[in-house]
């Protein structure tokens, strides 16, 4: 790419049109992980013919994918900026309880849900404020809030599960009906994708993640972005907890926890968002969650027992990530 | 005949494993008589083969056991029971669920089993609401569902076909009565791993009720200790160190009981007049009862929680759903220093201590 | 010994003029009475070692710092630059050494960083960005100043060092700059890449409407590009001259003399 311009000569204009090759190149990371997902699904379908092609299986699979995906979208916005939210799994358990309390206090269900989301947003704001203004690494901040929120949840719930309130119709829309979770997931994915690639907020988040100093030199309010993204991540985690509480008709203080947070981060990384920040992909996060869901569901269906389960899941995650990241590196090197 | 003696020994080991366990239900009686009838046959056919001959060739039915603490040592004998029964009945099993009592994970596992067209599902109902829908969905799909180890609370309409396990409230109540008989007044700590969970909360409720009913001036403090054994020990230790004037420490789950026993030994509490007790037969627990540090433990016989569940599933499937499901109370026996000997000296598959298959010979009179 | 300054043009003809700028940070004096002038359409080269005060001067000229004393005139009007945004509003743009580019973003995204074009119509409420327009305008701008890239969709991390610098310069120019400051634009560049940038700067000058200050450390290159040069040492301007009227040897002589004088004082 080292072309030297000859002075004072007309030069060919830079291209603006995007030929098809450019489209594929633009979506390359997502296409790669899509390939991995398709291969895995094909494998499981081959080994266990009930994996995909029945209503029950699809609903089941979608319920593995949905919660991890939605939390992943929030983590991705943070990871782009070099941050992370470790407390997501705990906010997941906390928000539904706030919803129940609001409902008990007399609020109609839709308002109670909003109350739960506001409670989650407050936690996100605290995470963001401490990280940005007190200048703590987000890992440390959210590690602290992880335990804090877990404790608060256990205390206000007295450690006991509560029944999920609301009419059957409301519950069906909010996660109880089989496909409702995945529909929410796709809708949120669409919104988050547009946010990331087609709004100033998203573009600035990417810029600030790639070069915080440079972005602030360009006049971008980097701190505002980080704070806002912490709130977004917490609200998404809280919303996921609320959806799940309608799905299993029970609000459990032990729910979520660190497991789902790690899965969400893994989904983001498998999908092509590096932990070190600078770039990210929402669609990739959705596909990464799909890969994890396919692995979990597939192994359960073919009968792997609980003890060996994690060995195989861990190995599969490593393999998927190595494939994705390695190929990405080769592409970047080759392009220069 | 040789195999008769073998079979008798097997039958009696089954019964001795039951001890005071009361086996109820016509269906269960039918299943046992089926077995008994078969073993009456002559010839050199082993009992297993004879059992098979009574049932024509059938598909290797698969039963999915969903569990709430898949890695907890309490369920090791349960898994052995499942394995042995599956070997006997020509079935296959899968052990899955959550390691952290996560109801969401367990529900997903049940749904996966339905999607995988399992032949039977067994699940402890540890959450009062979360399992209603999935179990109904399984039944609608033609898959029988049994609850083991934990059942839906009284008054709730959960559609599971049968419950195989301990009468949880009653066992707690009896423990409470025993506590009231040992302690006249003072503070008593009741430790529970995960409050609200249906396989242990009823015990705690029963114990509290019995203690209150006794009228004695006993101040009960409930302490949550966590789902893993390591956490439980630390929490119990800390609690004791902060409340050294307590009169008793009792637990309602296996891990916490072991923790209580260890703390009682470390701080030499019996010599200070403190009493302790709990549930289940983890190795440390039995050892420390033998050494006199723990007053009692209550056996709920995890081996048969697995074995009988598989057996019920088999009968249900073999008869096309005509016979089978019946609640089985897997027992409630207080094990104290006087009766702990046999547990110590035997290292059997039935207590989960070894993987070797074996028949344990009966010795002497049957103490109850 | 400092040569007498060349007579400054009348203020009104100057793009930028600084009189006796002093900047102190606590006990440290970074600028000790610096005066400079930048004519319209001129390229001024500022030379000097590290610690000479060049970066501080740049920060004052771009509004990042305010001077402790002294005056600044922009386009003939005396002004106190309150902030970077204020300086930008007056048409003063700077390309820093780190280029302030977001590596993972495309060329056209970078060129419109924080100045994105928002779609009109109903999408206006959502404030969705207009990629198509930004692409076209970026491509047009690059064509205008003669920078060649295969596609404005390429992420800047895929470009060579010279191309990245060119993009950063293009961004500054595109933002309606009238006064452009380039901080060490040729640092860490090989000859070929440097030629790319030098050509670009010459083209910009030819196009007109732009006055340029370049902070440099390579005497030969500076005399080649700049119309006038200014030598700074220890917070002061020690020499100012039209490039044509001086030489590398002469500049090095001045520097050596100053250096020896400094050694004498510290040794004593």
UniProtKB/TrEMBL annotation, chain A:
Keyword field: Cell membrane, Membrane, Transmembrane, Transmembrane helix
Highest taxon of the lineage: Bacteria
Membrane-topology annotation of the record: Multi-pass membrane protein
Membrane-spanning intervals of the chain: 27-46, 58-80, 109-130, 136-157, 169-196, 230-248, 260-293, 299-323
Chief subcellular location: membrane
Natural source organism: Caballeronia novacaledonica
Keyword Transcription regulation appears in the UniProt entry: no
Pfam family, one: BPD_transp_2
GO cellular component terms attached to this protein's record: plasma membrane
GO molecular function, one term: transmembrane transporter activity
InterPro entries noted in UniProt: ABC_transp_permease (IPR001851)
Subcellular location: Cell membrane
CDD domains for the chain: TM_PBP1_transp_AraH_like
Name used for this protein in its record: ABC transporter permease
From TrEMBL, chain B:
PANTHER family reported for this sequence: ABC TRANSPORTER PERIPLASMIC-BINDING PROTEIN YPHF (PTHR30036:SF7), D-XYLOSE-BINDING PERIPLASMIC PROTEIN (PTHR30036)
Name this polypeptide is given: Sugar ABC transporter substrate-binding protein
SUPFAM superfamilies, A to Z: Periplasmic binding protein-like I
Domain of life: Bacteria
InterPro entries: Bact_Solute-Bind_Prot2, Peripla_BP_I, SBP_2_dom, TAT_signal
Originating species: Caballeronia jiangsuensis
Principal location listed in the UniProt entry: periplasm
Subcellular location as annotated: Periplasm
Periplasmic binding protein domain residues: 63-313
Family of the protein in this entry: Belongs to the bacterial solute-binding protein 2 family.
Xref: Pfam families: Peripla_BP_4
Gene3D superfamilies: 3.40.50.2300
From TrEMBL, chain C:
SMART domains in the cross-refs: AAA (SM00382)
Gene Ontology molecular function, alphabetical: ATP binding; ATP hydrolysis activity
Domain ABC transporter span(s) in chain numbering: 16-259
Presence of the UniProt keyword Membrane in the record: yes
PROSITE patterns: ABC_TRANSPORTER_1, ABC_TRANSPORTER_2
Gene3D superfamilies: P-loop containing nucleotide triphosphate hydrolases
The UniProt record lists the keyword Oxidoreductase: no
UniProt keyword annotations, A-Z: ATP-binding, Cell inner membrane, Cell membrane, Membrane, Nucleotide-binding, Repeat, Sugar transport, Transport
PANTHER family assigned: CARBOHYDRATE TRANSPORT ATP-BINDING PROTEIN MG119-RELATED, SUGAR ABC TRANSPORTER ATP-BINDING PROTEIN
Protein name: Sugar ABC transporter ATP-binding protein
Native source organism of the sequence: Caballeronia novacaledonica
């Amino acid at each position: 790419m080292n072309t030297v311009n000859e002075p004072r000569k007309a030069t060919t204009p830079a291209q603006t049109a995007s030929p098809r090759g450019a489209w594929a190149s633009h979506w390359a990371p997502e296409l790669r992980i899509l390939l991995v997902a398709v291969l895995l699904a094909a494998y499981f379908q081959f080994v266990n013919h009930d994996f995909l092609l029945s209503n029950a299986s699809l609903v089941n699979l979608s319920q593995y994918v949905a919660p991890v995906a939605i939390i992943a979208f929030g983590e991705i916005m943070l990871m782009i900026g070099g941050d992370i939210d470790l407390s997501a799994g705990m906010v997941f358990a906390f928000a539904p309880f706030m919803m129940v309390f609001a409902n008990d206090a007399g609020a109609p269900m839709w308002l109670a849900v909003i109350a739960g989301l506001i409670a989650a947003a407050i936690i996100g704001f605290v995470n963001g404020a401490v990280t940005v203004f007190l200048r703590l690494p987000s890992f440390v901040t959210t590690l602290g809030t992880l335990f804090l929120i877990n404790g608060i949840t256990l205390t206000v719930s007295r450690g006991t599960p509560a029944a999920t309130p609301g009419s059957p119709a409301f519950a069906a829309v909010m996660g109880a009906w089989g496909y409702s979770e995945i529909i929410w997931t796709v809708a949120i994915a669409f919104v988050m994708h547009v946010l990331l690639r087609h709004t100033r907020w998203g573009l600035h988040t990417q810029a600030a993640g790639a070069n915080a100093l440079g972005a602030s030199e360009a006049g971008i309010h980097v701190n505002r972005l980080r704070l806002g993204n912490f709130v977004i991540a917490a609200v998404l985690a809280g919303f996921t907890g609320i959806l799940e509480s309608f799905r299993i008709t029970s609000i459990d203080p032990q729910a979520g926890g660190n497991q789902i947070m790690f899965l969400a981060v893994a989904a983001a990384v498998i999908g092509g968002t590096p932990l070190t920040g600078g770039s990210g992909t929402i669609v990739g996060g959705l596909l990464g969650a799909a890969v994890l869901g396919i692995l979990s569901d597939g192994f359960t269906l073919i009968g792997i027992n609980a003890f060996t389960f994690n060995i195989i899941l861990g190995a599969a995650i490593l393999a998927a990530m190595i494939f994705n990241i390695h190929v990405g590196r080769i592409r970047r090197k080759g392009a220069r | 005949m040789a195999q008769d003696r073998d079979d008798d020994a097997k039958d009696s080991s089954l019964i001795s494993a039951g001890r005071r366990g009361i086996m109820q239900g016509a269906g269960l009686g039918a299943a046992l008589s089926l077995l008994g009838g078969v073993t009456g046959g002559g010839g050199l056919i082993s009992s297993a083969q004879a059992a098979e001959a009574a049932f024509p060739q059938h598909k290797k039915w698969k039963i999915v056991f969903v569990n709430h603490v898949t890695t907890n040592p309490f369920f090791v004998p349960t898994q052995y029971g499942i394995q042995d029964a599956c070997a006997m009945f020509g079935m296959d099993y899968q052990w899955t669920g959550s390691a952290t009592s996560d109801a969401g994970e367990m529900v997903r596992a049940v749904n996966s089993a339905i999607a995988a067209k399992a032949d039977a599902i067994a699940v402890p109902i540890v959450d009062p609401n979360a399992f209603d829908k999935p179990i109904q969905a399984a039944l609608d799909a033609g898959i029988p569902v049994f609850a083991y180890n934990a059942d839906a609370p009284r008054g709730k309409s959960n559609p599971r076909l049968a419950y195989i396990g301990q009468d949880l409230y009653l066992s707690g109540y009896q423990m409470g009565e025993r506590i009231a008989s040992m302690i006249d007044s003072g503070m008593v700590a009741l430790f529970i791993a995960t409050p609200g969970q249906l396989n242990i909360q009823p015990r705690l409720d029963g114990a509290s009720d019995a203690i209150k009913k006794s009228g004695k001036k006993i101040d009960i403090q409930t302490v949550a200790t966590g789902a893993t054994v390591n956490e439980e020990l630390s929490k119990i230790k800390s609690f004791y160190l902060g409340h050294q004037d307590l009169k008793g420490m009792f637990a309602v789950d296996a891990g916490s009981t072991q923790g209580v026993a260890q703390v009682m030994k470390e701080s030499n509490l019996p010599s200070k007049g403190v009493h302790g007790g709990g549930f289940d037969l983890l190795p440390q627990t039995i050892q420390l009862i033998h050494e006199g540090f723990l007053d009692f433990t209550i056996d709920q016989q995890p081996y048969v929680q697995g074995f009988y569940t598989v057996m019920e599933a088999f009968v249900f499937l073999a008869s096309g759903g005509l016979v089978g499901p019946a609640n089985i109370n897997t027992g409630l026996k207080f094990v104290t220093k006087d009766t702990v000997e046999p547990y110590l000296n035997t290292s059997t598959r039935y207590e989960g201590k070894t993987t070797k298959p074996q028949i344990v010979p009966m010795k002497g009179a049957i103490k109850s | 010994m400092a040569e007498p300054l060349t007579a400054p043009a009348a203020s009104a003809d100057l793009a930028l003029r600084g009189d006796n700028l002093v900047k102190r940070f606590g006990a440290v004096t970074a600028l000790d009475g610096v005066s400079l002038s930048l004519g319209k359409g001129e390229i001024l080269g500022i030379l000097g070692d590290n610690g000479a005060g060049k970066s501080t001067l740049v920060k004052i000229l771009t509004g990042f710092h305010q001077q402790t004393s002294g005056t600044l005139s922009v386009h003939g009007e005396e002004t106190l630059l309150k902030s970077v945004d204020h300086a930008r509003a007056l048409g003063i743009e700077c390309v820093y050494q780190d280029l302030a580019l977001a590596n993972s973003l495309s060329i056209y995204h970078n060129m419109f960083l924080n100045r994105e074009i928002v779609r009109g119509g109903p999408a206006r409420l959502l404030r969705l960005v207009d990629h198509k327009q930004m692409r076209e305008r970026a491509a047009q701008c690059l064509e205008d100043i003669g920078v060649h890239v295969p596609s404005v969709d390429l992420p800047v991390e895929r470009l060579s060092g010279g191309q990245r610098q060119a993009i950063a310069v293009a961004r500054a120019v595109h933002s309606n700059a009238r006064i452009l400051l380039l901080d060490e634009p040729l640092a860490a560049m090989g000859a070929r890449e440097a030629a790319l940038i030098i050509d670009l700067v010459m083209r910009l000058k030819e196009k007109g409407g732009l006055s340029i200050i370049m902070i440099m450390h390579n005497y030969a290159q500076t005399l080649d590009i700049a119309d006038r040069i200014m030598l700074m040492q220890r917070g002061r301007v020690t020499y100012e001259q039209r490039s044509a009227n001086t030489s590398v040897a002469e500049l090095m002589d001045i520097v050596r003399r100053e250096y020896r004088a400094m050694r004498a004082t510290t040794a004593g």
